[in-house]
Amino acid sequence: MRGVVDLGAVKAASDAAAQRAARAASAPQGGADQGAGSGGFVFDLTEENFDSVLALSQQAPVVLEFSSQRSPHSIELGAVFDLLAAEYAGRFVLARLDIDATPQLAQELVMQAGVQGLPAAVAVVGGQLAPMFDRAAPTEEQLRGILDQLIAVGEQRFGLTGLAGAPGGAPAGEEQDEDAEPPGDPLLAPAEEALDAGDFAGAAQAYRNVLAEYPAHTEAKLALGQVELLLRTQDVDAAAARRKAADAPTDVDAQAVVADLDIAGGHVEDAFGRMVETVRRTAGDDRNKARVHLLGLFDLVGSDDPRVIKARAALTSVLF
Prior knowledge:
Elements: E1 5-6, H1 8-12, H2 17-26, E2 42-44, H3 50-54, E3 62-67, H4 72-88, E4 93-98, H5 103-113, E5 120-125, E6 128-134, H6 140-158, H7 189-196, H8 200-213, H9 218-233, H10 238-247, H11 252-264, H12 268-281, H13 284-301, H14 306-319
Parallel strand pairs: 2-4, 3-4
Antiparallel strand pairs: 1-6, 3-5, 5-6
């Protein structure tokens, strides 16, 4: 991930940015599906679907592959990418950019990513652009290693879990039994007993114990998020917290506390709007901290909730 830069400069560098945003705003939901292939994890990147495809980097690493029919090596690389995209099944997304068909968009991204020649690819992880390779195609085995590293970084630094339907463990073909969600609820009994006793801290630790052994236990993961929200808000003076946030609009911690209060009180859209605005106002580590907190709130509400879908689009517009 050396050389990571903010993708906000991509759009700022071009007069076409506003037009892309307008098209994305007026496009029907599911615009990212345009041109999708290989099980829905490969897209032909265009001006029209740029925003919706790049927004997927908040769920899984997006690999931007620069391609041209005039480059035999890039064609060969594309075939390998297609196979791996199908195999990894949503743990990364492939966005193929035909530099001949979309020269303006290609020029923007080539300049921003510093690409010198084909074959070439860069990655977008959690809204951040990172170089992969250019002017020399890796072997299939080397490419697997690069993809595994990107996926690991996405999981560890940005909390990315892959697109819906993606396997929660290693790439296809590797054993995943250790991470499989166990049947039944006996593992959650200690946490539920702690909740019944009003011991939120004990319940949180009990859920963490389950996840330490079964990382893919979705019920424990969701419940832990809810309990942690209770812990963050149970002793907060709401009036004082809102005054502090109003006085310090770039204080990520202050804004996050009020967003938590809004989520706990059912004011979901207010919470999302506050954190999106905080991301817009901040930069560097503060921006990433605000973004990660917002993604955690998305998980609490649920990825299929229309309010989450709307807020993800707003976050993407701010980041790009």
